[in-house]
Amino acid sequence: MIPRIDVRSAIARKQFSEELIFEYGADWSLLDIPFVSFSSPVCVTLRYEILENDDVEITGQMRFSLKGECSRCLSDAEQSFTAELDALFVMGESDGESYGYRNGVIFLEEFLRDSLMVALPPRLLCGNCSASDGENE
After folding, report:
1. % the chain with pLDDT above 70
2. Domain extent for 28
3. Under DSSP, is residue 92 helix (H, G, I), strand (E, B) or coil?
4. Is the full-model pTM beyond 0.85?
5. How many domains does the chain have?
6. Torsions phi, psi for 114 (to 5 deg)
7. With CB atoms counted within 10 Å of each terminal CB, which end of the chain scores lower, N or C?
8. For the chain, which residues score pLDDT lower than 50?
9. Residue 80 burial by CB count (10 A; 0-12/13-18/19+): exposed, middle or buried?
10. SS3 label, residue 127
């Protein structure tokens, strides 16, 4: 389950930064690599900081694994990936460069979906194909 950040409550408690660690099941429909699926939940470590103007800066890391058939030789393949996370949430509407939040609560689903989509590789390669190609995708 993806947690929410209650900005109002955190400000009331004078807790202007916190670390969140959680796992969630990724939506398989985000994958467009044939015969590949997520082999484990997505592991997320986030740190948020509430700024003086009530904007919230979020940084962290996302880890996930994919398994399926190698896109080149069709052998079994499994690979782990790590992505850095960085976002700014502003009160009100999103402006295209930052995410918006309303009523003092940040919903992380859209941010995590966007971050995962950017982190997904264009193909899954087995160890042999990855080594022979010199790529680590």
Report:
1. 95
2. 4-136
3. coil
4. yes
5. 1
6. -60, -45
7. N
8. 135-137
9. exposed
10. helix
